């Protein structure tokens, strides 16, 4: 095998693979060029989820006819002159690769006119080959149209996700740039319909309402801090508003969206002791520092940065977030005196379910130490089915205590009720359909663009599960009926939970659709830990759980109960082997 130089065509497509990963990558590069050009208004039009056509039009400074061919050449840029400029980059783009990369894997048409020119100019690029520049009438600014993305690289097309997923990526990208550049008017149209319209008045909370909805935007806490040349601004969620993953944590460094583990760790550390394990905040934070203090030339897609003093940035972000949290969250009182933790009575309001039966200030000696022999691991539950149980009571408004023929059972009321609702729902669904209950007043639900697209495509699926949902304007849906099983649940919460925590590659609502949707809704509808139940309600929950096919776990696999056998109790109290 001999060594040879790659053809310019192959080299261009290899380079494009680092820059153009999916349609959202094209939108990102063109959007950054428009912002660098000083645009005050940007219009993005997308068809076919970006595969068929992407058009970005701006009112920036424009490009002269003489420079158009140079603009699509590789490594041609107006933002760098010498190597030293790499260490003080103040623009979003700087490598001069974006237009050349896009032109090598699509049909690109660029029309532009600077303010001093009487007419505009147009240049067409197809598969990396540029045609002659032609004069055209055009407004001041630049319009770039990208058609038939990856038409000459069919292997790349196979790796694209479903159209709904690609549209969500574009929605999410443009909305976040609209947050960072609130003084710019953004208009995004997907498949001929408006997906995002911002006023450009500089109010970030207004854009935040588009991203998360009005209610969430109203709850978000504002962060504003500045020290030693580091400025941190943006919004974070209160401790009552969380997600099960870090997907809603977004950082911008000097106006550039970045993925940085240290920044994310600083944010999470600021919430230390304030959030439950496995829960994460929502955040959109903007970090500003001198250009020479951050290196942005460390990732092909410019998605990562490196700080000159990473520890100072970590501390600055952590302190800024912590101050904003403490300004709105009272500091809990901590008692240093040993005392038994108390639990609410039925007449008191529910308390949080994190109380335990242990003495504050006292630590248990480790197993195997003097005075406490090592105990064997708890044996597995005796049978797959539940035995008949006798209710003893409720602990911490979160767990039921029951006696069985083979020992003591501690039942998580939330997980148990999840299982009961899930099997009841599935039985109705498999028995010919889930009956619905019409609402006297339809509930209006507002969703951000990405979630709205996801839900709109699955309305027929929801109809088969007892939901009657219809679109009601941009990003708004009306819930007219809900399943009878969930009649007591807030219909807006029932609908919102369907799209709240889906992962990027989860292909939501496609595989095992009914079971997955039902499990998510039942999780929200089940009684919560901290909710006091009457004796009759406790007994009814036990009886319903005994009748389930799989009473040992909730639909998500979490155990519903812990079994303490008589043998284990005797060993713990020292009765076994004492005689």
General description of the model:
This protein is α+β, with helices and mostly antiparallel strands and about 575 residues long. It folds into 3 domains: about 10-200, 2-Layer Sandwich (Heat Shock Protein 90); about 220-330, Ribosomal Protein S5, domain 2 (2-Layer Sandwich); about 385-579, MutL, C-terminal domain, dimerisation subdomain (formyl-coa transferase, domain 3, 2-Layer Sandwich), CATH 3.30.1540. Helices cover about 30% and strands about 25% of the residues. It is built from 17 helices and 25 strands. The strands form 6 sheets. Strands 1, 2, 3, 4, 5, 6, 7, 8 and 9 form a 9-stranded mixed sheet that branches. A hairpin with a 5-residue loop joins strand 1 and strand 2. The model is unreliable at about 330-380 and about 500-510 (pLDDT under 50).
């Amino acid at each position: 095998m001999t060594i040879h130089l790659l053809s310019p065509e192959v080299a261009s497509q290899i380079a494009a693979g680092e820059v153009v990963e999916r349609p959202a990558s094209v939108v990102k590069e063109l959007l950054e060029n428009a912002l660098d050009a000083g645009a005050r208004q940007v219009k993005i039009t997308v068809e076919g989820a970006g595969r068929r056509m992407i058009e970005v039009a701006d009112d920036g400074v424009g490009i002269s006819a003489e420079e158009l061919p140079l603009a699509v050449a590789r490594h041609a840029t107006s933002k760098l002159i010498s190597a030293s400029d790499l260490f003080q980059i103040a623009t979003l783009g700087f490598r001069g690769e974006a237009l050349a990369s896009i032109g090598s894997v699509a049909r690109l048409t660029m029309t532009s006119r600077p303010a001093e020119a009487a007419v505009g100019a147009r240049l067409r690029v197809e598969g990396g080959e540029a045609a002659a520049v032609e004069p055209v009438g055009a407004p001041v600014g630049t319009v770039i149209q990208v058609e038939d993305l990856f038409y000459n690289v069919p292997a790349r097309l196979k790796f694209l996700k479903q159209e709904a997923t690609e549209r969500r990526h574009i929605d999410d990208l443009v909305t976040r740039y609209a947050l960072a550049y609130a003084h710019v008017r953004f208009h995004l149209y997907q498949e001929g319909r408006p997906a995002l319209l911002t006023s450009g008045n500089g109010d970030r909370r207004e854009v935040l309402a588009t991203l998360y909805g009005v209610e969430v935007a109203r709850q978000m806490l504002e962060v504003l801090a500045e020290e030693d040349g580091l400025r941190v601004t943006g919004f974070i969620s209160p401790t009552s508003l969380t997600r099960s993953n870090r997907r809603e944590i977004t950082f911008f460094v000097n106006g550039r969206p970045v993925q940085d583990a240290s920044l994310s760790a600083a944010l999470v550390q600021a919430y230390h002791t304030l959030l439950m394990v496995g829960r994460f905040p929502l955040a959109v934070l903007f970090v500003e520092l001198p250009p020479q203090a951050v290196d942005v030339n460390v990732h092909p897609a410019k998605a990562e940065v490196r700080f000159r003093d990473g520890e100072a940035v970590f501390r600055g972000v952590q302190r800024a977030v912590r101050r904003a949290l403490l300004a709105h969250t009272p500091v809990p009182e901590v008692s240093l005196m040993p005392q038994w933790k108390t639990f609410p009575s039925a007449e008191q309001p529910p308390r949080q379910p994190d109380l335990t039966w242990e003495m504050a200030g006292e630590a248990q000696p480790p197993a195997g130490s003097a005075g406490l022999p090592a105990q064997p691991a708890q044996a597995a539950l005796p049978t797959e089915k539940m035995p008949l149980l006798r209710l003893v009571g409720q602990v911490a408004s979160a767990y039921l205590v029951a006696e069985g023929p083979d020992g003591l059972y501690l039942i998580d009321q939330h997980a148990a009720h999840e299982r009961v609702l899930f099997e009841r729902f599935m039985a109705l669904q498999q028995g010919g359909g889930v009956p619905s209950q019409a609402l006297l007043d339809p509930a209006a639900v507002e969703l951000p663009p990405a979630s709205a697209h996801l839900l709109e495509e699955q309305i027929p699926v929801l109809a088969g599960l007892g939901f009657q949902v219809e679109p009601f304007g941009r990003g708004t849906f009306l819930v007219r009926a809900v399943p009878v099983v969930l009649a007591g649940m807030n219909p807006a919460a029932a609908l919102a939970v369907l799209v709240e925590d889906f992962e990027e590659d989860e292909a939501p609502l496609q595989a095992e659709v009914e079971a997955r949707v039902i499990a998510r809704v039942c999780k929200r509808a089940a009684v919560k830990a901290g909710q006091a139940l009457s004796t009759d309600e406790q007994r009814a929950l036990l009886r319903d759980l005994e009748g389930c096919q799989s009473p040992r776990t909730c639909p998500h696999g979490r155990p519903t109960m812990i079994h303490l056998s008589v043998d284990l109790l005797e060993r713990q109290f020292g009765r076994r082997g004492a005689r």
